[in-house]
Design brief:
- It is a single chain.
- This protein has 198 residues and is mainly α.
- The chain has one domain.
- Helix content is 65%, strand content 3%.
- It is globular and about 40 Å long.
């Protein structure tokens, strides 16, 4: 595997800004994200997918399930040791409204900046190879919970936020964030079980 890049100082804000800059059109497609982040690893892509899921954009019917499928594919690739994510063409063509993403960025700027100030490399053993494999297993379960939970308004926010934490932990090599994400995974699964069948 290639040498990891230095951890970014502002993983949430910087990644979302770069995602917005990745497309000059009205739609940001997964293809744009992989073109922008695909040479870096899985963390930044997971961050953007999770932010879409927990934002108002994630209320579009079927979108959480599609993004969940992309998350599952990335989880499998983490386990087999790929350095960079790959997605099939059908998923690469999935997109979301760039203007809505930009509005979300502006509204959430203060919150994301405050979170970014609390993030940094620590407990890196939890964000290493073993942590990545554990995260991959959790990501599969989290993606699976999005299918039933997307039928309930805002219910996908919990698994989406947990995916976000895994993305941040992997990007910033923050093991504490990874450990919190592991704990929240069980809460997401319990919520899905409790609400199924509705």
């Amino acid at each position: 595997m290639s040498e990891p890049r230095p951890a970014p100082e502002h993983p949430l804000g910087d990644v979302l800004d770069e995602a917005l800059a990745s497309s000059n059109g009205d739609t940001i497609r997964l293809r744009d994200l992989l073109d922008e982040f695909g040479t870096r690893s899985f963390g930044p892509v997971l961050i953007v997918l999770a932010l879409v899921i927990i934002s108002p954009i994630g209320s579009i019917p079927g979108l959480p399930a599609v993004l969940g499928a992309a998350i599952v594919l990335m989880a499998v690739q983490i386990v087999i040791g790929r350095d960079h994510p790959w997605l099939p063409k059908r998923l690469l063509d999935t997109g979301f409204d760039r203007a809505k993403a930009a509005r979300f960025r502006e509204k959430a700027r203060g919150v994301l900046d405050r979170i970014d100030r609390q993030i940094g490399p620590r407990l890196e053993w939890a964000a290493g190879r073993i942590g990545m494999i554990g995260a991959a297993g959790c990501l599969v379960f989290l993606a699976a919970t999005m299918i039933p939970l997307e039928l309930i308004p805002f219910a996908v926010a919990l698994p989406g936020a947990t995916v976000l934490l895994f993305g941040v932990g992997l990007t910033a090599r923050d093991g504490l964030v990874m450990l919190i994400a592991f704990a929240l995974t069980f809460s997401s699964i319990a919520l899905a079980i409790y609400l199924w069948p509705f």
